[in-house]
Design goal:
This is Cation diffusion facilitator family transporter. Its main location: membrane. It is found in: Membrane. It is a multi-pass membrane protein. Belongs to the cation diffusion facilitator (CDF) transporter (TC 2.A.4) family. The chain is of the alpha+beta class. It has a 4-stranded mixed sheet, covered by helices on one side. Helix content is 64%, strand content 11%.
């Protein structure tokens, strides 16, 4: 897959997941609020937590991909604000549901859930599973996305099963006139709210501890051409340039002749740094990784002096 295709697919995955989770939040939240069912409200808060996870990973996570030049500074600032405020709102909402569930259990004011609540919870569960299977098959080549999706899906699956089990058991308790089973619905709401609070705490921790300056990717053609001219470089394996508040940061990975000594390789890397910072005033920091060039085929590098090769033809 090309880089452009991967960027478009990631953007499409982000917005479709955002809209899907927002739809589930509105559906479950509205039905849960009207019916007064706390388990369904806690499940709605979990979907809202999924929305906050997407926003935080895109705008507030230090491990995300650098922001492209097409992203405006206003969009970045607004995204960073959402990455901070939405997890806080989700945590507050989950805490309110948890306290309300505890109060209901202590007071003994238990009301059996309505059939519509179970239907909506089941529909939301099936819709989430179908969407996950679709995204899983569409992203099977992106190992990082699959790993993150699998981890998030396990937690979402557990919370949905807990909510469905709590609602179902409460309805069974109503039909069998067994009041003890009515506690299963607020217990499910309490457990799900605890999961939401824990996830929100993780998001806030990653935001505050891992947040760093946003980086804007720069064109690397001139830097690549300069590095290739350095005496001793065989190939330039990777080069990235990012704009920071202090200037341009260049990250380079090069290969050198494997017959070089460690001191010679270090000297070559220093020449790369000096040349980049000297030729380009905007470059303030250079990180370079030097690796030995390994290949099964013969090669020539600018490290070797041009010498006339002796003929090896049989006389």
């Amino acid at each position: 897959m090309t880089t452009d295709y991967m960027e478009k697919m990631n953007r499409s995955r982000f917005w479709t997941s955002m809209l899907g989770n927002m739809g589930l939040t509105i559906l479950k939240g509205s039905v849960g609020y009207i019916s007064g069912n706390k388990a369904l409200l806690s499940d709605a808060m979990y979907s809202a937590g999924e929305v906050s996870t997407l926003i935080t990973h895109r705008f507030g996570n230090a491990d995300k991909e650098p922001i492209t030049e097409s992203s405006t500074s206003r969009t970045v600032r607004f995204g960073g604000f959402l990455a901070l405020i939405i997890p806080l709102l989700v945590i507050l909402g989950a805490m309110q549901i948890a306290f309300s569930s505890i109060y209901v259990m202590v007071a003994g004011d238990l009301e059996p859930p309505q059939l519509m609540v179970l239907i909506i919870a089941f529909i939301a569960f099936v819709a989430r599973e179908i969407w996950f299977q679709y995204e899983w098959r569409r992203s099977y080549k992106d190992k990082q996305a699959i790993h993150m999706m699998g981890r998030n899906h396990r937690l979402a699956l557990y919370s949905s099963i807990i909510v469905l089990a709590g609602i179902t058991l409460a309805m069974i308790g109503k039909e069998m006139d067994y009041s003890l089973l009515l506690y299963s619905e607020p217990v499910a709401a309490l457990i799900t709210s605890g999961i939401v609070i824990w996830k929100g705490y993780e998001l806030l921790a990653s935001y505050f501890l891992g947040h760093k300056d946003k980086e804007i990717r720069q064109d690397t053609y001139d830097y690549m051409e300069t590095v290739q001219r350095v005496h001793g470089i065989v190939t330039v394996e990777q080069i990235n340039a990012y704009e920071r508040t202090s200037g341009i940061y260049v990250d380079v990975r090069v290969t050198v002749n494997p017959r070089m000594s460690v001191a010679e390789a270090q000297e070559t890397s220093e020449r790369v740094k000096v040349l980049l910072t000297g030729r380009f005033e905007q470059v303030t920091e250079v990180s370079i990784e030097v690796l030995p060039y390994l290949s099964e085929y013969p090669y020539k590098s600018n490290y070797e002096l041009a010498e006339r090769e002796s003929t090896t033809l049989l006389q």
